[in-house]
Structures are given as C-alpha cells and as structure tokens.
Amino acid sequence: MAAANEQFVDWDIIHVTGNAPLSLEDSTVNVVAAKIEPKLASAIIRQLNHICPLENLRHVKRVKRENSQGKVELSIILCLSSENGSSIEAFPSGVRQLIDNYNLTFFYAKVSKCQATSKEEWEEQCKLWPTSFHPPTNPEGVSGLNAEEIKSIYSSMKSVLQLVNSNIQYKVVNAAVIVNPSNGQIISNAQDDILPLLRSSEENISSNLNYEEMKYKWSNNKEVACVNPWGWLEQSCPDHNVIPCDGGFTLHPLKHAAMVAIEKAAVRDRQFFPNSSPCGNDCYSEFYSVMGPAKRLKTEEVQLTEKVSERFSDLASEATRPYLCTGFDIYLAWEPCPMCAMALVHQRIKRIFYAFQNQRVGALGTVHRLQGEKSLNHHYSVFRILVPDKALGEIFLEKLKD
C-alpha cells in the first residue's frame, strides 16, 4: 500500500501480482519439528544440515525462538513431513537416530512453501514459522513508486473516472487514457464505443440524474463493455435491431474503451510521424541495396560504412515514431476483459491501472491473471487504484457542472 497525497485523501494503490494468492493449504508445507535445549542447538543444526538439508525451503529458518515466561525456548525443523504416514518410521534414518540420541519429542508444524515477495507477506509467514525476507533492489510494485509518481497516477485515474460519467443517455461506460509516464503527456483517451450514444440535454441530466443513481449504475455495470462483453446482443437498436450495411445505425462489438484508445494512439502516430516506420522504407532499401557482392575493395567498404552511418545518423537526429505503445501507461475505470488485456500485451504497454474490479471476466486479478502468464512475450505491471466513495461523488458533481 502507498500513502495518499493530501489532494487524494484515502485514495490507495495496490500492486496486482501475476500470481494468485494461494490458500493456506497451497501456500504451506508440513514439517516435523522438536523442542531442543539452547545449549544443544549448534550441534543438532550441524548434524541436520548434513543428514537432512532443507533444499527447497532455504527461505525458512531452521530454528524458531520463542520466549515463554521469561525463558527462551527453541524449536528446530527436523525434516519434511512424509506423505506416507505420520509415524516415526516414515522419517529419514538419520533423523530417527538423532531423535533417539537426544531423546527429542517431535511435533508437526506448517511453514511457508515459497519466499515472501513483500514485507506484508513476510509478516504473515512469520506467524507460522520464521522466514527470511530480502526486499528487491529494483522493486516493481508500489514500493517502487515515489510520492510524486503516485500523485500523478491518482490524477490520471481521476481523469478517467470523469470520462465514465458520459452524460449520454444516463449511461455508465468504461473509459481509458494512455499516458506517456516520462513526461505526463496524454497519448489518447477513449470510451466504450460499441453503440452510438445520443446526447441528452444538459437540463434533462441535471434535473433527473443524481449521484445515488449513478452509483447504482456503477455497481450494476451491465453497460460496461469489458464487464458484459456480450451485452451488445441485448441492446435494443433503432429500426428493430437491424444493422444497416450502408450508413445509418452502426454497431461494433469490439470497440471497448482500451481498443478504441489503442486505435486513437495509432492514428496520432500516423499524423505526427508520416513514415510507416522509424527508419522509413528508403533507409532499409538503401541499406540492403549497398550490401551487394561479398568481395569489395577496402576503399569501397569504408565509403559504404560511412554512407550507411550517415544515413542512420540523419534519421536518429529526427523524432522517431514510437514502437506501438512501448513504455506507455494505460488507465482504465474497469479491469479489462481478456480481449483487451491481450491487446495491451501486443501493444507493449508498460503499466496498467484500473479502479473497479471486473467480477465477470476480469483478466488482471479478479478472474484471471494474464500478467503472470509466462508463455507471453511481453509482461506489464498491473495496479488497482482504490477510490473512496466520497471522491467518486465529487467527480460526478464536477462532471455535472461542466
């Protein structure tokens, strides 16, 4: 968690990891332990490290120290609990011998199966049995964000939520904003655009719509494309659900907010960078045309190298078109569906921020966790912004005044 800025009191941000939280049964493993005298600890540890090392539990501390009525008590892990049974006969022979030699009384305990990835997770693990925790040197989660970044993130999310209240037929739609985090520039913004929305009059909106009604629409978000991907089939279209092929009423079931924002970013790139690629076709054709026969005179090779270097130098000095949305952030009101989440993988988005969970088909934490799929050739970081109810009301009222 991260502390909210004064301007965003009670706002918070959560890092949505690629691995789903494990249940207690899945996240722990049973071990055999015993209480030992402190003076025997060193000798027993040396023997256990030799006869039964905990190779797959290196994050777990072998000895647990507790204070009981002013007296120090030590417990030590002897070995993993066998699936074959709980009797002493199932223990490794070396462990059985050690139990006999020191007259130990063993018991069973649970320890964490995996190393903690956050301080909070580590604290929970230590309630079962002590583990070690080494914070990452380059944190990718919330701990890697400074106060200025968090303020900028909250501000961008506020802009997205202002787009949710579309003032159009009382509809609540998903919204998306793509931002270049290096300079805060907005690359594109968009709303769900599956059905054409007819604008209502400002007077009609202000007199008939209030925050409680809009809040109800937020919680019952059947109009949001990512939450209800097949909802367009249920929409009543003008002209008796007939979609004309030549003009008139049109419908596009793929135009979710994220998809439209990606499309607008591409249109922007074509306007600002007329060439189809950062290098341009001329550059590549020139490069390959001069790569002719293998045997060339030394002077020709030098001239060729200088010519190619000059050409690339000239191009590098100009502003080059970005590759898709590489390095950009996207802010969404609702957690994206699998289609949108996969499109953002292909676009090489760096980070995704969303406010509301998608309980039906959420692809980034609620139902699926696409960001943790190892087979993908690109992975982005995912964060959820917790927006307090009061802030949502203020954003809605601000929208009505516009």
Automatic annotation (TrEMBL):
Residue ranges crossing the lipid bilayer per the database entry: none
Domain CMP/dCMP-type deaminase: 249-367
Keyword annotations: tRNA processing
GO molecular function, one term: metal ion binding
GO CC annotation terms, alphabetical: cytoplasm; nucleus
GO biological process: tRNA wobble adenosine to inosine editing
Family indicated by similarity: Belongs to the cytidine and deoxycytidylate deaminase family. ADAT3 subfamily.
Name the record gives this protein: tRNA-specific adenosine deaminase
Species the sequence originates in: Rhynchospora pubera
